[in-house]
Design goal:
By secondary structure, the protein is α+β, with helices and mostly antiparallel strands. The protein contains 13 helices and nine strands.
């Protein structure tokens, strides 16, 4: 017997199903619910569990109807989606519930569904080459960085140069508008001026000249100056009409240079279990090569997914995109909280952040749907051995046990999401011409929620 009264398209990738639960099913389930509630019902003049069902139905009407809907709506929604042949991507929105004595139960379930995706060219991607070649200069630079970390700094009487450490006093000397209006005479002669005043107190900082974390303008300003010398520089913040220029005055307090330990076997042994410099160089080269290979792999995957999306334009379900945006903002709020910032008190324009995040969220949803479609087309599956291996890897990363991690994922509703995620990663490996695997070389990433797995 059909339970779907109507099936309408109400938007791109969105359908509304009017569903009917037959009267006999409603009455039978209603009796079961009444029996359960009657067992614990207490009313004046009746012993616990001895209240007549007719009185229970009257006095506990809201509780009975609520429990009845909780039982029937999910059950008949599942039957309706199978009958309609749709693939829902999120739980449905339930509305227009009609529940009256002596009548069938009807309700409308509106849901985002998987769009029709016509797979096109899945070959001939323009991908950057895998790169793992390391030069002698790169090895030398990495070892020099290690030597710098073990070096000692001492004051020198000379001009600062790149790589030196400089203690500098900074004053923000930006020009701020005058607090008083210009006089009529000043206005007429065009001689009105602004009052120059420091906006902050002098600050002393120690910087390493040329360090990427240091303003380039500051590094350039101190280069060539010895202790006691002063200088000025300007820094521009922002772009376009919102750009702001800050003017600074500085004074060099001290210049230091580093004395690095000699590169010999003794230094190699101090760094770790290296017999000599040759062993150190071999290990550094291997680590740099692995890092290059990983980074080039990321670039290849990024290029693949970008071209895959460009070749397959299709409408993306708006509700799923909204859900993805909420996830992104929730993750950002959690990161703020971990850094000790209260997201509710932070002066953030959450709506603007949501609007800015939407294109990225839409692209992520598009990629997931594409990879799932390819996995279906090619019958790609994740074996139980692969799945259990991934859970074991997650357990090792978390310093836990596989049963504990599995239980935690299950309770968080992420087991199905993990399976879907591994399946998509296997598709990517296959499209890249690599052996499909249950996890990337970096190990399994954070599992997704089950409702994101479609």
């Amino acid at each position: 017997m059909s339970v779907v009264l109507s099936n309408e398209e109400v938007g791109p990738c969105r359908r509304a199903l009017k569903i009917e639960v037959p009267l006999p099913a409603v009455e039978a389930e209603s009796q079961r619910v009444l029996g359960v509630i009657a067992k614990s019902a207490q009313l004046p003049g009746f012993r616990k569990g001895k209240v007549p069902q007719a009185l229970v139905a009257k006095r506990f009407k809201d509780e009975v109807e609520g429990e009845l809907l909780d039982r029937l709506v999910p059950r008949y929604w599942e039957q309706a989606q199978d009958e309609a042949g749709i693939v829902p991507l999120l739980p449905p929105d339930i509305a227009d519930v009609h529940l009256h004595a002596g009548e069938p139960l009807t309700f409308v379930a509106t849901v985002d569904v998987k769009p029709e995706i016509e797979l096109r060219n899945l070959e001939d991607f323009e991908l950057p080459a895998l790169d793992s070649q390391v030069t002698t200069a790169e090895v030398d630079e990495a070892i020099d960085q290690a030597r710098r970390q073990h070096g000692s700094w001492h004051t020198v009487d000379r001009e600062a140069a790149r790589g030196d450490r400089v203690r500098v006093t900074l004053v923000d000397a930006s020009v701020v508008p005058a607090t008083q209006e210009a006089s009529e005479e000043e206005e007429s002669t065009g001689e009105a001026e602004s009052e120059a005043a420091p906006t902050t107190e002098p600050q002393t900082a120690e910087i390493e000249v040329g360090d990427p974390a240091v303003w380039e303008e500051l590094s350039l300003a101190v280069t060539g100056l010895a202790a006691g010398r002063e200088a000025k520089f300007t820094r521009r913040r922002g772009e376009g009409e919102e750009a702001v220029e800050q003017k600074f005055e500085l004074k060099i307090e001290e210049v230091k240079e580093i004395a690095m330990p000699p590169l010999d076997d003794e230094f190699a042994q101090e760094l770790g279990e290296f017999a000599d410099v040759a062993a150190l160089r071999a290990t550094v080269e291997e680590q740099l090569s692995a890092a290059k290979r990983k980074e080039s792999g990321r670039r290849r995957e990024s290029a693949l997914l970008r071209q895959l999306a460009e070749r397959h334009p299709f409408p993306v379900p708006g509700g799923v995109v909204d859900h993805e945006v909420r996830h992104m903002l929730e993750d950002y709020a959690m990161n703020l909280a971990r850094r000790g910032v209260d997201p509710e008190k932070a002066e953030l324009d959450w709506q603007k952040m949501a609007d800015d995040a939407r294109p990225q969220a839409e692209n992520q949803v598009r990629i997931r749907l594409l990879l799932d479609t390819i996995a279906d087309e090619r019958a790609i599956t994740i074996s139980e051995d692969q799945f259990e291996s991934t859970i074991a890897s997650l357990a090792r990363m978390q310093g836990s046990s596989a049963p504990v991690v599995r239980r935690s994922l299950d309770e968080a509703g992420k087991l199905n999401g993990l399976r879907a995620q591994l399946r998509r990663e296997a598709v990517v490996r296959q499209l890249l011409g690599e052996e499909p695997s249950a996890q990337t070389a970096e190990g399994p990433s954070e599992p997704e929620d089950d409702e994101d797995s479609a």
